[in-house]
């Protein structure tokens, strides 16, 4: 029987992000087009005989106790399943942190998915997603992966036609953004422009990459861009370098650009890195759930 499992915990971007209201408990109601990308953390889960949970990461500023959402995921399952004695987690982070790319949520999803396999817990996906939702609104989507519409607080998921093949340039400026603060500040905006989410769903059905990119929009840019004007500068630079369109992901500050040509994406990568506006710059591709499994 295997004692260890290695998993890729994939990041996401939002091709469209709209906020359509607020729930009674203060959570915002969203409509988001979610897309998994081929940029990932490595999550290793190892059984150990000694009771308890241990966690190590390659980034010394991340918590390694119950403040780490991946630790919380392991703790949830350990409480409910007596066959789990001890577990060792190792996370090698590559996804930028506090960047609007669901880095923590995808690590937590990988821990839920991986422990289910490693300990033969036989938890059905629906139940695994319920565990995920108790940790964070993006965790159920990180379990589903691929292209999806997320509604409610992000937990109500509908699979969509896959994103057409393309190159995605990611650039994270060296500032951190608090998701909570961005959503709180959104309420002060008067009539923010709402992105055409339904048009994007049609664009996906028609596999029209140009239209999909042209319809991209993120209502949260109205909050984060004034706080960090370099986001607008990176968007402009990507578009000047041949991106069909560029947009901020989630609550930011990461910017991504959609390219149909690989060479132009790499040229833009060099330009942005040389500008000093972003240090973490990657060319990646959309992840298609039909082509790959975990
Ligand atoms: P989202 O797009 O879901 O808002 P994000 O990409 O903006 O997420 P994360 O990278 O998940 O943000 O980090 C948010 C905060 O969570 C950080 O301040 C970090 O200290 C904390 N954190 C806890 N666990 C993790 C983890 N496993 N990976 C990254 N950050 C974590």
In round numbers, the mean pLDDT is 95
Low-confidence stretches: none
Shape: globular
The helix-and-strand class reads alpha+beta
Describe this structure in words.
This protein is an alpha+beta fold and about 290 residues long. Helices cover about 35% and strands about 30% of the residues. The protein has ten helices and eleven strands. Strand 1 and strand 2 (about 30-50) form a beta hairpin. The longest helix has 16 residues, at about 105-120. The chain is globular. The mean pLDDT is about 95. The structure holds adenosine-5'-triphosphate. Adenosine-5'-triphosphate binds near residues 91 and 251. The site of adenosine-5'-triphosphate (ATP) has 20 residues, from helix 1 and helix 2.
Q: Which helices and strands appear, and what pairs or packs with what?
A:
Elements: E1 4-22, E2 28-48, E3 52-57, H1 69-80, E4 86-92, H2 103-118, H3 125-135, H4 139-144, E5 147-151, E6 156-159, E7 167-172, H5 179-186, H6 197-205, H7 209-214, E8 217-218, H8 221-227, H9 230-240, E9 245-248, E10 255-259, H10 262-275, E11 280-284
Parallel strand pairs: 1-8, 3-4
Antiparallel strand pairs: 1-2, 2-4, 2-5, 5-6, 7-10, 7-11, 9-10
Helix pairs in contact: 1-2, 2-3
The chain binds adenosine-5'-triphosphate.
């Amino acid at each position: 029987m295997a004692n260890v499992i290695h998993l890729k915990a994939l990041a996401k971007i939002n091709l469209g992000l709209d906020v359509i209201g607020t729930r009674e408990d203060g959570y915002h109601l969203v409509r988001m087009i979610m897309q998994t990308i081929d940029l990932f953390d490595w999550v290793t889960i190892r059984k150990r005989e000694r009771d308890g949970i241990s966690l190590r990461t390659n980034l010394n500023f991340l918590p390694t106790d119950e403040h780490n959402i991946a630790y919380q995921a392991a703790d949830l399952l350990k409480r409910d399943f007596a066959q789990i004695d001890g577990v060792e987690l190792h996370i090698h982070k590559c996804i930028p942190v506090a960047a609007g790319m669901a880095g923590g949520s995808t690590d937590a999803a990988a821990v839920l998915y991986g422990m289910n396999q490693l300990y033969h817990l036989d938890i059905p996906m629906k139940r695994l997603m319920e565990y995920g939702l108790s940790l964070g609104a993006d965790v159920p989507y990180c379990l589903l992966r691929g292209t999806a519409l997320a509604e409610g607080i992000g937990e109500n998921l509908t699979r969509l036609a896959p994103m057409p093949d393309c190159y995605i340039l990611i650039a994270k400026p060296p500032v951190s953004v608090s998701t909570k603060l961005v959503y709180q500040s959104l309420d002060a905006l008067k009539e923010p422009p709402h992105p055409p989410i339904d048009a994007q769903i049609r664009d996906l059905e028609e596999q029209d990459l140009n239209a999909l990119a042209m319809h991209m929009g993120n209502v949260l840019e109205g909050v984060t861009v004034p706080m960090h004007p370099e986001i607008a500068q990176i968007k402009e630079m990507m578009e000047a370098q041949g991106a069909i369109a560029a947009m901020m992901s989630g609550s930011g500050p990461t910017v991504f650009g959609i390219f149909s040509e690989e060479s132009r994406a790499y040229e833009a990568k060099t330009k942005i890195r040389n500008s000093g506006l972003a240090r973490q710059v990657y060319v990646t591709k959309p992840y298609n759930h039909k082509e790959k499994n975990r």
